[in-house]
Amino acid sequence: MKNTASLIKMKTQNEKIAMLTAYDYPSAKLAEQAGVDVILVGDSLGMVVLGYDSTVKVTVDDMIHHGKAARRGAPDTFLVVDMPFASFHGSAERTLDNAVRIFQETGAEALKLEGADEVVDVVKLLTRTGIPVVAHLGLLPQSAGVLGGYKVQGKTAHAAQKLIDDARACEAAGACMLVLECIPYQLAQKVTAALTIPVIGIGAGSETDGQVLVYHDVLKYGSHHLAKFVRSYAETGDIMKQGLTQYVDEVKSGAFPAEEHRFTMKEEELQQLYG
Ligand code: KIV
Ligand code: NA
Question: Is 181 designated active site?
Answer without folding.
Answer: yes
